[in-house]
Amino acid sequence: MAISEKNLLKLANGSDVRGVSIEGVVDEPVTLNAEAANRITSGFLDFLSTKTGKKIKDLRVAVGHDSRISAPMLKNAVLEALTAAGAVTVDCGLASTPSMFMSIVFPETKMDGSIMITASHLPFNRNGLKFFTKDGGVEHEDIIAILEAAARFPEQKGDLTKVQKYNLIDRYCHHLRKKIRAALNMGDTPLKGMHIVVDAGNGAGGFFATQVLGRLSADTSGSVFLEPDGHFPNHIPNPENKQAMAAIQKAVLDAHADLGFIFDTDVDRMSAVLKNGKEISRNALIAMMAAILAPDYPGSTIITDSVTSDELTEFLQDELGLKHLRYKRGYKNVIDECIRQNKAGVVSPLAIETSGHGALSENYYLDDGAYLAVKLLIAATKAKAQGRDLGALIKKLGEPVESKEYRMKIMGEEDFRAYGQGVLETFEQRAEKAGIRIAKPSYEGVRLVFPNGWALLRMSLHDPQMPLNVESRKRGGVAEIVKEVEKLLAGFTSLDTSVLCS
User: What is the pLDDT of residue 463?
Assistant: First the structure.
């Protein structure tokens, strides 16, 4: 039986398509199978034809994937749809999400659109599709249009002998090496004397060690989990995962390396570790990137998500002379806001989430973990040549003493978003009445400011939940703030506030 439009639309996940592609996990039936991928690809072709004004047979479309074990099955389904429609179809094999966008940019490829088969850091049984046009990744409303179009198409059978092959990662690595050589101006082997380790988490990012660092004469001994393996046997390929971060910290310390990088599965996110094992992620990664960019963009505005610390704001403004705009959660949200600011004449070189998604205006507003790594690598190499330590860039960055996130479920409400909005409105009114300072402007949720910390209550991007983020500058401060928040949430019977007692 053909997949219904209703079930196709359930695969929408923000600006991506995501679902379960592998059987075997209890209570997780397959939702993104070959038929779904095939029909969704036809929907994308319909969307791309309208957007470009080209006939489908004149379109050039590239396809790539990460290391997930369902990738071959989904890729064949995608290629079948593309060739059946007569589009010029290019199989790029194992690739990163950013490289798939660059297939549209590179003069050798000049694709009209591209498809990346990935579910980022999600478990091994999941997979998904990301779509790119010359304007970057598609928006949520575009995903809905693609899925609605997919419902009108039957499954297509094409001729896979017509598929062209192209080593996109090789071309992409050449692009990154060129950036490093130009910035360092130290000949063909500018990384000689640098010892850098990489943890690819058995995702697609092993190329950074072998084809970027190694080709520039860096010592990459001690790098771990470079081999693609869609079972992810060593740790979740997610820089925010504690086990993953512990693995790269250990690798750096064991190898006595100058620097370590860890990527997520499809290499659109990155975190780093300094030679002393100190983690550079979340607020520290934002601060480090801003410090690197500040000399070239004085007085500019850094766009972040809503859960960044007050200490980061103080560092950006007081130490770097920059402006800080806290926007919404969601990497597309911060990127789109960065684009809007620049179009309005406000210089904004960086849009970055605490998750490690970071996009630079100089790099097509593309959230590219490898490009962020290149910027850190250039700064680290220059610092070492001058006898300095990269960590000195953020020496004056403060840190909260305590930090915690609580996720409160909304239960039994059919329109959970409307309920959550009502909670936020009442929450803000009660806070004002209690004389608690409210941060303005707030682009997402309600942020309360306390003498020793803050609390942000917001709606989850996709789920019937209300996350509460709390930070404090003193021991025991989070518990004190949570007690105040509990009073403001009294009487909301559909909101599970029991987690606040944990």
Answer: 86
